[in-house]
Design brief:
- The chain has a single domain (15-231, 288-315), classed as TIM Barrel (Alpha-Beta Barrel).
- It is built from ten helices and ten strands.
- The chain has helices at 42-54, 72-85, 113-127, 146-158, 172-185, 207-214, 257-272, 277-286, 301-307, 318-328; strands spanning 15-17, 24-26, 28-31, 59-61, 93-98, 132-137, 162-168, 189-193, 217-218, 294-296.
- An eight-stranded parallel β-sheet has the order 9-8-7-6-5-4-3-10. The protein has a two-stranded antiparallel ribbon with strand order 1-2.
- Helix 3 (113-127) packs parallel to helix 4 and helix 4 crosses helix 5 (172-185).
- It is globular and about 50 Å long.
- The structure holds NADP nicotinamide-adenine-dinucleotide phosphate (NAP).
- The site of NADP nicotinamide-adenine-dinucleotide phosphate (NAP) has 30 residues, from strand 10 and helix 9.
Protein backbone atom coordinates (compact mmCIF):
# COMPACT_ATOMS: atom_id res chain seq x y z
CA UNK A 1 0.00 0.00 0.00
CA UNK A 2 1.35 3.42 -0.95
CA UNK A 3 1.78 5.70 2.09
CA UNK A 4 0.09 9.07 2.09
CA UNK A 5 0.59 11.04 5.28
CA UNK A 6 -2.42 12.15 7.31
CA UNK A 7 -3.17 15.72 6.26
CA UNK A 8 -4.10 16.64 9.85
CA UNK A 9 -0.76 15.43 11.24
CA UNK A 10 0.36 18.77 12.61
CA UNK A 11 -2.87 19.61 14.43
CA UNK A 12 -2.41 17.87 17.76
CA UNK A 13 1.33 17.79 18.29
CA UNK A 14 3.15 20.38 20.34
CA UNK A 15 6.54 21.53 19.00
CA UNK A 16 9.10 22.83 21.45
CA UNK A 17 12.14 24.93 20.63
CA UNK A 18 15.35 23.00 21.19
CA UNK A 19 17.18 25.17 23.69
CA UNK A 20 17.88 28.55 22.12
CA UNK A 21 18.43 27.08 18.64
CA UNK A 22 16.32 27.60 15.54
CA UNK A 23 15.08 24.01 15.60
CA UNK A 24 11.78 22.81 17.03
CA UNK A 25 11.16 19.19 17.97
CA UNK A 26 7.90 17.38 18.64
CA UNK A 27 7.17 17.01 22.37
CA UNK A 28 7.16 13.24 21.75
CA UNK A 29 9.89 11.69 19.57
CA UNK A 30 10.21 8.07 18.48
CA UNK A 31 13.28 5.95 19.22
CA UNK A 32 14.23 2.87 17.19
CA UNK A 33 16.46 1.10 19.72
CA UNK A 34 14.06 -1.84 20.02
CA UNK A 35 11.40 -3.17 17.61
CA UNK A 36 13.08 -2.13 14.32
CA UNK A 37 15.79 -4.81 14.06
CA UNK A 38 15.98 -7.83 11.79
CA UNK A 39 14.47 -9.90 14.62
CA UNK A 40 11.28 -7.80 14.44
CA UNK A 41 8.24 -7.98 12.16
CA UNK A 42 8.51 -5.54 9.21
CA UNK A 43 4.76 -4.92 8.90
CA UNK A 44 4.60 -3.97 12.55
CA UNK A 45 7.50 -1.53 12.50
CA UNK A 46 6.28 -0.02 9.26
CA UNK A 47 2.96 0.66 11.00
CA UNK A 48 4.68 2.16 14.02
CA UNK A 49 6.58 4.56 11.76
CA UNK A 50 3.45 5.54 9.82
CA UNK A 51 1.52 6.04 13.06
CA UNK A 52 4.27 8.28 14.36
CA UNK A 53 4.43 10.49 11.29
CA UNK A 54 0.65 10.60 10.96
CA UNK A 55 0.48 12.02 14.48
CA UNK A 56 3.01 14.79 14.01
CA UNK A 57 6.08 12.94 15.30
CA UNK A 58 8.73 14.38 13.04
CA UNK A 59 11.79 13.22 14.96
CA UNK A 60 13.26 9.72 14.71
CA UNK A 61 16.17 8.66 16.86
CA UNK A 62 18.63 5.95 15.80
CA UNK A 63 22.18 4.84 16.55
CA UNK A 64 24.75 2.83 14.65
CA UNK A 65 24.31 -0.18 16.95
CA UNK A 66 20.48 -0.43 17.10
CA UNK A 67 19.07 -3.76 15.97
CA UNK A 68 19.71 -6.58 16.59
CA UNK A 69 21.91 -7.22 14.75
CA UNK A 70 23.68 -3.85 15.13
CA UNK A 71 23.04 -1.66 12.10
CA UNK A 72 19.78 -3.35 11.14
CA UNK A 73 17.52 -0.64 12.62
CA UNK A 74 19.24 1.94 10.39
CA UNK A 75 18.93 -0.37 7.38
CA UNK A 76 15.25 -1.06 8.03
CA UNK A 77 14.50 2.60 8.70
CA UNK A 78 16.35 3.52 5.49
CA UNK A 79 14.23 1.06 3.51
CA UNK A 80 10.99 2.48 4.94
CA UNK A 81 12.21 5.98 4.17
CA UNK A 82 12.88 5.07 0.54
CA UNK A 83 9.68 3.08 0.10
CA UNK A 84 7.20 5.22 2.02
CA UNK A 85 8.50 8.51 3.28
CA UNK A 86 11.05 9.77 0.75
CA UNK A 87 8.88 12.72 -0.27
CA UNK A 88 8.61 13.80 3.40
CA UNK A 89 12.37 13.91 4.14
CA UNK A 90 12.35 17.67 4.70
CA UNK A 91 9.58 17.28 7.28
CA UNK A 92 11.73 14.90 9.31
CA UNK A 93 14.55 15.16 11.82
CA UNK A 94 16.67 12.02 11.70
CA UNK A 95 19.24 11.45 14.43
CA UNK A 96 21.97 8.90 14.82
CA UNK A 97 24.90 8.32 17.16
CA UNK A 98 28.22 6.59 17.65
CA UNK A 99 29.97 5.80 20.92
CA UNK A 100 29.27 2.17 21.80
CA UNK A 101 30.88 -0.96 20.34
CA UNK A 102 30.07 -1.26 16.66
CA UNK A 103 32.84 -3.18 14.93
CA UNK A 104 35.96 -5.16 15.82
CA UNK A 105 39.37 -3.64 16.45
CA UNK A 106 40.49 -0.35 17.99
CA UNK A 107 38.46 1.93 15.66
CA UNK A 108 34.90 0.67 16.22
CA UNK A 109 34.11 2.04 19.69
CA UNK A 110 34.29 5.04 22.05
CA UNK A 111 35.23 8.54 20.89
CA UNK A 112 38.15 8.85 18.47
CA UNK A 113 37.80 10.98 15.36
CA UNK A 114 38.53 7.84 13.31
CA UNK A 115 35.55 6.00 14.84
CA UNK A 116 33.03 8.84 14.72
CA UNK A 117 33.72 9.83 11.12
CA UNK A 118 33.78 6.23 9.80
CA UNK A 119 30.70 5.30 11.78
CA UNK A 120 28.62 8.17 10.46
CA UNK A 121 29.68 7.31 6.90
CA UNK A 122 28.41 3.76 7.51
CA UNK A 123 25.15 5.03 9.04
CA UNK A 124 24.48 7.29 6.06
CA UNK A 125 25.01 4.34 3.69
CA UNK A 126 22.70 2.09 5.73
CA UNK A 127 19.94 4.70 5.76
CA UNK A 128 20.54 5.85 2.19
CA UNK A 129 20.89 9.47 3.32
CA UNK A 130 23.20 12.31 2.31
CA UNK A 131 23.08 13.75 5.82
CA UNK A 132 21.46 13.25 9.22
CA UNK A 133 19.92 16.12 11.10
CA UNK A 134 21.54 15.39 14.46
CA UNK A 135 24.70 13.38 15.13
CA UNK A 136 25.46 12.50 18.75
CA UNK A 137 28.46 11.28 20.61
CA UNK A 138 26.67 8.42 22.37
CA UNK A 139 28.70 8.28 25.61
CA UNK A 140 31.78 10.02 27.02
CA UNK A 141 35.13 8.35 26.38
CA UNK A 142 37.49 8.56 29.39
CA UNK A 143 40.57 7.81 27.25
CA UNK A 144 40.20 10.12 24.26
CA UNK A 145 40.84 13.86 24.68
CA UNK A 146 37.47 15.58 24.70
CA UNK A 147 38.91 18.07 22.18
CA UNK A 148 39.41 15.27 19.64
CA UNK A 149 35.84 13.97 20.00
CA UNK A 150 34.37 17.46 19.75
CA UNK A 151 36.59 18.26 16.74
CA UNK A 152 35.15 15.19 15.06
CA UNK A 153 31.59 16.49 15.66
CA UNK A 154 32.62 19.92 14.36
CA UNK A 155 34.19 18.38 11.24
CA UNK A 156 31.10 16.27 10.54
CA UNK A 157 28.84 19.32 10.76
CA UNK A 158 31.15 21.41 8.56
CA UNK A 159 31.22 18.61 5.99
CA UNK A 160 27.42 18.73 5.90
CA UNK A 161 27.08 15.11 7.00
CA UNK A 162 25.06 16.29 10.01
CA UNK A 163 23.25 19.57 10.52
CA UNK A 164 23.63 19.64 14.31
CA UNK A 165 25.79 18.04 17.00
CA UNK A 166 24.57 16.44 20.21
CA UNK A 167 25.86 14.74 23.35
CA UNK A 168 24.44 11.75 25.17
CA UNK A 169 25.08 10.32 28.63
CA UNK A 170 27.50 13.13 29.56
CA UNK A 171 27.42 14.11 33.25
CA UNK A 172 27.12 17.85 34.12
CA UNK A 173 30.84 18.69 34.43
CA UNK A 174 31.90 16.81 31.29
CA UNK A 175 28.88 18.18 29.41
CA UNK A 176 29.95 21.71 30.38
CA UNK A 177 33.48 21.14 29.06
CA UNK A 178 32.23 19.59 25.83
CA UNK A 179 29.73 22.42 25.30
CA UNK A 180 32.50 24.99 25.78
CA UNK A 181 34.82 23.28 23.29
CA UNK A 182 32.06 23.00 20.70
CA UNK A 183 31.21 26.67 21.15
CA UNK A 184 34.86 27.65 20.62
CA UNK A 185 34.98 25.52 17.49
CA UNK A 186 31.92 27.33 16.12
CA UNK A 187 29.59 24.32 16.14
CA UNK A 188 27.29 24.84 19.11
CA UNK A 189 25.91 21.80 20.85
CA UNK A 190 22.21 21.53 19.98
CA UNK A 191 20.93 18.95 22.43
CA UNK A 192 21.74 16.50 25.19
CA UNK A 193 20.17 13.04 25.43
CA UNK A 194 20.24 11.67 28.99
CA UNK A 195 18.38 8.81 30.66
CA UNK A 196 15.58 10.39 32.68
CA UNK A 197 12.39 9.03 34.16
CA UNK A 198 10.59 8.95 37.49
CA UNK A 199 12.94 6.09 38.37
CA UNK A 200 16.15 7.79 37.27
CA UNK A 201 16.46 11.43 38.26
CA UNK A 202 20.18 12.31 38.16
CA UNK A 203 19.62 15.01 35.53
CA UNK A 204 17.82 17.09 38.17
CA UNK A 205 21.13 17.38 40.05
CA UNK A 206 22.90 19.84 37.78
CA UNK A 207 22.54 18.73 34.18
CA UNK A 208 19.23 20.47 33.47
CA UNK A 209 20.64 23.71 34.92
CA UNK A 210 23.75 23.51 32.74
CA UNK A 211 21.65 22.93 29.62
CA UNK A 212 19.25 25.71 30.51
CA UNK A 213 22.06 28.20 31.07
CA UNK A 214 23.76 27.28 27.81
CA UNK A 215 20.53 27.25 25.79
CA UNK A 216 20.77 23.57 24.90
CA UNK A 217 17.82 21.24 24.44
CA UNK A 218 17.17 18.09 26.45
CA UNK A 219 15.59 14.89 25.14
CA UNK A 220 15.29 12.22 27.85
CA UNK A 221 15.51 8.60 26.74
CA UNK A 222 13.66 5.64 28.29
CA UNK A 223 11.11 7.99 29.90
CA UNK A 224 8.89 4.98 30.63
CA UNK A 225 11.86 3.12 32.19
CA UNK A 226 11.60 0.68 29.24
CA UNK A 227 7.93 0.00 30.01
CA UNK A 228 8.15 -0.34 33.80
CA UNK A 229 6.35 2.99 34.23
CA UNK A 230 3.14 1.57 32.76
CA UNK A 231 0.56 -0.79 34.20
CA UNK A 232 1.83 -3.77 32.18
CA UNK A 233 3.95 -5.47 34.85
CA UNK A 234 1.45 -5.13 37.70
CA UNK A 235 0.02 -8.59 37.12
CA UNK A 236 3.19 -10.45 36.15
CA UNK A 237 5.42 -10.34 33.09
CA UNK A 238 3.40 -10.49 29.85
CA UNK A 239 4.86 -12.81 27.20
CA UNK A 240 5.06 -10.09 24.56
CA UNK A 241 6.73 -7.52 26.84
CA UNK A 242 10.32 -6.28 26.62
CA UNK A 243 11.22 -7.97 29.90
CA UNK A 244 10.15 -11.33 28.45
CA UNK A 245 11.85 -10.96 25.08
CA UNK A 246 15.22 -12.55 24.48
CA UNK A 247 16.62 -9.42 22.81
CA UNK A 248 15.15 -6.93 25.28
CA UNK A 249 17.46 -4.78 27.38
CA UNK A 250 15.00 -4.79 30.30
CA UNK A 251 15.76 -7.80 32.49
CA UNK A 252 13.18 -9.55 34.64
CA UNK A 253 15.24 -9.02 37.79
CA UNK A 254 14.98 -5.24 37.33
CA UNK A 255 11.26 -5.52 38.11
CA UNK A 256 11.71 -5.88 41.86
CA UNK A 257 8.94 -6.04 44.51
CA UNK A 258 9.94 -2.52 45.65
CA UNK A 259 9.59 -1.17 42.10
CA UNK A 260 6.23 -2.95 41.72
CA UNK A 261 4.96 -1.33 44.88
CA UNK A 262 5.93 2.11 43.61
CA UNK A 263 4.43 1.36 40.20
CA UNK A 264 1.17 0.31 41.83
CA UNK A 265 0.98 3.52 43.89
CA UNK A 266 1.91 5.69 40.90
CA UNK A 267 -0.73 3.88 38.86
CA UNK A 268 -3.35 4.82 41.43
CA UNK A 269 -2.26 8.44 41.44
CA UNK A 270 -2.38 8.55 37.64
CA UNK A 271 -5.97 7.30 37.82
CA UNK A 272 -6.86 10.18 40.14
CA UNK A 273 -5.51 12.56 37.48
CA UNK A 274 -7.61 10.83 34.83
CA UNK A 275 -4.49 9.38 33.20
CA UNK A 276 -2.90 5.99 32.76
CA UNK A 277 0.51 5.57 34.36
CA UNK A 278 2.22 5.66 30.92
CA UNK A 279 0.65 9.08 30.25
CA UNK A 280 1.52 10.44 33.68
CA UNK A 281 5.14 9.25 33.48
CA UNK A 282 5.60 11.18 30.23
CA UNK A 283 3.66 14.28 31.20
CA UNK A 284 5.61 14.41 34.48
CA UNK A 285 8.79 14.88 32.41
CA UNK A 286 7.18 17.32 29.98
CA UNK A 287 5.95 19.58 32.82
CA UNK A 288 9.48 21.01 32.89
CA UNK A 289 9.89 23.58 30.11
CA UNK A 290 13.63 22.82 29.93
CA UNK A 291 12.67 19.49 28.34
CA UNK A 292 12.41 19.63 24.56
CA UNK A 293 10.93 16.21 23.85
CA UNK A 294 10.43 12.80 25.47
CA UNK A 295 12.03 10.01 23.47
CA UNK A 296 9.74 6.99 23.66
CA UNK A 297 9.85 3.51 22.20
CA UNK A 298 6.85 1.47 21.10
CA UNK A 299 6.38 -2.20 20.26
CA UNK A 300 3.01 -1.61 18.55
CA UNK A 301 1.31 1.31 16.79
CA UNK A 302 -1.53 1.40 19.36
CA UNK A 303 1.01 1.82 22.13
CA UNK A 304 2.44 4.91 20.49
CA UNK A 305 -1.04 6.36 20.04
CA UNK A 306 -1.64 5.68 23.70
CA UNK A 307 1.60 7.37 24.82
CA UNK A 308 0.66 10.49 22.85
CA UNK A 309 -2.24 11.02 25.26
CA UNK A 310 0.34 12.41 27.71
CA UNK A 311 0.06 15.70 25.84
CA UNK A 312 -3.47 16.25 27.09
CA UNK A 313 -2.32 17.20 30.60
CA UNK A 314 1.25 18.18 31.46
CA UNK A 315 0.27 20.30 34.47
CA UNK A 316 0.86 18.99 38.00
CA UNK A 317 -0.45 20.55 41.21
CA UNK A 318 2.00 20.91 44.10
CA UNK A 319 0.11 18.18 45.97
CA UNK A 320 0.59 15.78 43.10
CA UNK A 321 4.31 16.54 42.88
CA UNK A 322 4.67 15.96 46.62
CA UNK A 323 2.74 12.69 46.41
CA UNK A 324 4.89 11.45 43.52
CA UNK A 325 8.11 12.36 45.34
CA UNK A 326 6.85 10.55 48.43
CA UNK A 327 6.11 7.39 46.46
CA UNK A 328 9.52 7.54 44.81
CA UNK A 329 11.31 8.20 48.11
CA UNK A 330 12.54 11.61 46.92
CA UNK A 331 10.79 13.67 49.58
CA UNK A 332 13.62 13.92 52.11
N1 LIG B 1 21.31 7.66 24.24
C1 LIG B 1 21.25 6.48 24.80
O1 LIG B 1 22.21 5.98 25.41
C2 LIG B 1 19.97 5.71 24.70
C3 LIG B 1 19.79 4.54 25.46
C4 LIG B 1 18.55 3.90 25.37
C5 LIG B 1 17.55 4.42 24.55
N2 LIG B 1 17.78 5.53 23.81
C6 LIG B 1 16.75 6.06 22.90
O2 LIG B 1 15.53 6.22 23.60
C7 LIG B 1 14.50 5.54 22.89
C8 LIG B 1 13.43 5.09 23.84
O3 LIG B 1 13.96 4.17 24.78
P1 LIG B 1 13.01 3.06 25.35
O4 LIG B 1 12.48 2.24 24.23
O5 LIG B 1 13.72 2.39 26.45
O6 LIG B 1 11.82 4.01 25.91
P2 LIG B 1 10.57 3.80 26.84
O7 LIG B 1 9.54 4.68 26.23
O8 LIG B 1 10.96 4.00 28.26
O9 LIG B 1 10.14 2.27 26.69
C9 LIG B 1 9.51 1.84 25.53
C10 LIG B 1 8.82 0.51 25.79
O10 LIG B 1 7.81 0.64 26.76
C11 LIG B 1 6.65 -0.06 26.39
N3 LIG B 1 5.59 0.94 26.12
C12 LIG B 1 5.69 2.07 25.37
N4 LIG B 1 4.55 2.77 25.39
C13 LIG B 1 3.69 2.09 26.17
C14 LIG B 1 2.36 2.32 26.57
N5 LIG B 1 1.69 3.40 26.17
N6 LIG B 1 1.78 1.41 27.39
C15 LIG B 1 2.45 0.31 27.80
N7 LIG B 1 3.72 0.04 27.44
C16 LIG B 1 4.35 0.92 26.64
C17 LIG B 1 7.03 -0.87 25.15
O11 LIG B 1 7.63 -2.09 25.60
P3 LIG B 1 7.02 -3.57 25.36
O12 LIG B 1 7.99 -4.21 24.43
O13 LIG B 1 7.05 -4.17 26.71
O14 LIG B 1 5.66 -3.44 24.77
C18 LIG B 1 8.09 0.00 24.55
O15 LIG B 1 8.95 -0.67 23.66
C19 LIG B 1 15.25 4.42 22.18
O16 LIG B 1 14.52 3.87 21.10
C20 LIG B 1 16.47 5.15 21.73
O17 LIG B 1 16.18 5.92 20.58
C21 LIG B 1 18.96 6.19 23.88
Amino acid sequence: MHYIANSARYQNMEYRRCGRSGLKLPAVSLGLWHNFGNVDAPDNYRNILWTAFNNGITHFDLANNYGPPPGSAEENFGRLLREDLASYRDEMIISTKAGYTMWKGPYGDWGSKKYLVSSLDQSLKRMGLDYVDIFYHHRPDPDTPLEETMMALDLIVRQGKALYAGLSNYKPAEASRAIKILKELGTPCLIHQPKYSMFERWVEEGLLDVLDEEGIGCIPFSPLAQGMLTDKYLKGIPEDSRAAREHGFLKKDQITPEKLQQISQLNQLAGQRGQKLAHMALSWILKDKRITSVLVGASRPEQLEDSLKCLANTHFDDDEIIAINRILGNDL
